[in-house]
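Hi everyone, sorry if this is the wrong subforum. Our group has a chain we'd like a structural model of before ordering constructs, and none of us has done structure prediction before. Sequence below.
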Amino acid sequence: MHPRRTFILALLASGSAGADAATPDPMPPADFGAHPASSIEWWYITGALESAARTWGFQITFFRAATGLGRDADAASSSTFTARELVFAHAAVTDLEGRRLRHDQRIARSGFGIANAGVGQTRLVLRDWRLERNEDASGRSRYATVASSNSGGFAFRLALQATQPVLQQGTGGVSQKGPRREQSSRYYSEPQLDARGTLVLDGRSVEVGGRAWLDHEWSDSFLDPAAVGWDWIGINLDDGGALTAFRLRRADGSALWAGGSFRAAGGATRNFETGEVTFTPGRTWQSAASQARYPVEWRLATPAGRFVLRALQDDQELDSRASTGAIYWEGLSLLEDESGRRVGRGYLEMTGYAARLVL
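Answer:
Right subforum, don't worry. Here is the predicted structure as tokens:
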């Protein structure tokens, strides 16, 4: 995974529609389109955008979830109106100068020209929100994404160019999520994406540039029922490397499972074993909206080194109860080494703090 996305864990923990859990076969080096035979799937982009002296964080996530309907041969299940698949999306902008998180969410059944997750290539549509992939002459990814929100007062239109090869997470692109072999997913990342485009806040437009990170993951398997949430980071290192770390968390705050990876710029990927990653919470922030208390500073120990992660804004909590059904924290953060020197920037996600993730 990362592990990934709020609705996803709810589906996994509940044993939602899908095939019997089994250990996935190694995936191809890159498989960018949707996988309708899998129960759950998501494409996730986060990053930092800059213009002059200002910095913003952004994220856009598309989810595809099979409902289990339409598998029978009766007339009702074969109807065009049967909701065989749902498409969700979240988009957000962290306005550091305004100390405000702007966010919005969408949900629709697949089809009717309203929502779709294309097979074979990244082609995601949910009303006027989009994420599409093409390739440059060398075969590397070029993404284009568009999102806008009247209620949130934001919009962005971004072009994202891969600067590095695809990073396969786990063994052969199969990422372990728990103590049982079937608790796994297919998962790859594209870190260090060069981002360029336009950001609009309250009707005012600015040209921006920056760095972004993409994850694509899909699965049929179930997470361990003892997991109540997770903590995850995806960090674009300032020297061109990439660091992923995550842990699944029990109700008492202890780690049920952990993992991640490190890839130096131009180097090989080092995948982490569960006992090699430690998250130690530091300073916390309490949400006035949900009353959840989140660690907004962490000390991290990994095979790639020891670090301190600091949120660039405390309030980056998203309420997605109108779509994926949960409240979670996801925001732009700085990574420092033990001496306090900045070594990277990326996103931290924390789920299961407002309430245990259940469907």
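For your construct planning: The chain is about 5% helix and 55% strand. The longest helix spans residues 6-14.
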